[in-house]
# Entry
Amino acid sequence: MLPHNALSLLIFFSIFLFLTGCAGIKNIEDSSRHLIRGAVNFSQGEFTITPCYSQERRKLRDKRGLVEKRYREQTPEGNLPVYMELRASPLTDLSWDVSDVQVAGGGSSACEFDLIGIQFRAAGSDPLWIVDVLADRVRVQSYDNLRTLTFPLSSSSGLGGVWEGVLKSVKNRTHRFRLEILDQACRDKHNAWYRRTASLELDGDLFYGCAREGDLTSRSVKGRYSNELTQDHVFVVLDLLDDQKASMLLDYRNGQPLIVMSGVWKWKSSDTLLLEFSEQDGRQQQSFLLLRRTVNGFVQQGFSSEFGRAGLSLSRSE
# Structure
């Protein structure tokens, strides 16, 4: 049985079938290239992006014309915002140098989807099916016959973009699947463009669709954040780094040395980030900071030993 009724899942799927590229085919990410996702606009001869959970537009440097090509496909008149997921590196003038487009299209609600804990998602619409690749298992949902199968994975699964598994059900029936994700462009029935295509073989039946990389929020949240510089409050610069490492700089602007804190970050829920600091200025010192995600960035939740209940507010500054 499916966890929700088939109608609600069908509605969910039709909204969600905008999928980004599965760059994890090679399981290698260039740490200098970030995932940046949001609404792309064209105005006064240049492309800009308003990242998800931000109100600040950033210029896009599109040397290879990748953004322009996908943008024109989605809005030929060139007057509408288009949701995109891009590989890009930040430049010193707060613009982004684009190296790859992973998805184009998906509608205004695209920023709401996180896929937390899911490494890859593949899906198709004729018939309706979804496959989620998690760390230790693959979940196959077939809406044609209303069933969900969860296959265990071996440590070698995913090599070369191929996942395979065998499952024996409670009725002693053996199920087999093979999922392959290819570096080949794909479009869904809503005309959204994806970087990868997928094929699924389930118990001898073959299905085709598109694929995307998951954990969107964790991958796109990395970067630098800061608060507004005012006379009465400490100036804060927070860096969310690879491997869930975090660094925070505090400048009280009182002639004293800067305070540097280091630790880790993790999602406590879909919209709440927990910072666990273990060092301050090179000495062991434990503290915590809870941040809630907003349309502008993050705001402090609860009490903090550094900020009290002042309500620290941080926005992306790169």
Observations:
- The CA atoms of residues 122 and 211 lie 4 Å apart.
- Residues 1-24 have pLDDT under 50 and may be disordered.
- The first helix runs from residue 6 to 16.
- The chain has three domains: 23-111, 114-216, 221-316.
